[in-house]
Design brief:
seven-stranded mixed β-sheet, elongated, 0% helix, four-stranded antiparallel β-sheet, single chain, 121 residues, mainly beta
Length: 121
């Protein structure tokens, strides 16, 4: 079994910062690409940022220059540093990872349960 657990969400004022964390655990052989998605009310889930095992990153245009994704391969963790937060960043943020389980020959995609981020005065 594989499990992803997010933490770090909460309420913050516009212009503030939050740091989200996600840990992958379970019967893992390797963790490959990891990312963050978000879903705001009445909107579809969208990609926020993704990072490969080698450290290559990609960001949604709406967060470029404000958010930074990083990872710790030794701990099977991924982070999202969010600065200069705006009300439109309010959403449930989901951790995502492509993981190879032990004794399996293909990666599967896993999702965390989501953590709420609210940006409001």
């Amino acid at each position: 079994q594989v499990h992803l657990e997010e933490s770090g969400g909460g309420l913050v004022q516009p212009g503030g910062s939050l740091r989200l964390s996600c840990a992958a655990s379970g019967d893992i052989f390797s963790v490959n690409a990891m990312g963050w998605y978000r879903q705001a009310p009445e909107k579809q889930r969208e990609l926020v940022a993704v990072i490969t095992i080698g450290g290559t990153t990609n960001y949604a245009d709406s967060v470029k220059g404000r958010f930074t994704i990083s990872r710790d391969n030794a701990k099977n963790m991924v982070y999202l540093q969010m600065n200069s937060l705006k009300p439109e960043d309010t959403a449930v943020y989901y951790c995502n990872a492509d993981i190879r389980r032990r004794f399996y020959n293909k990666d599967s995609t896993y999702w965390g349960q989501g953590t709420q981020v609210t940006v409001s005065s």
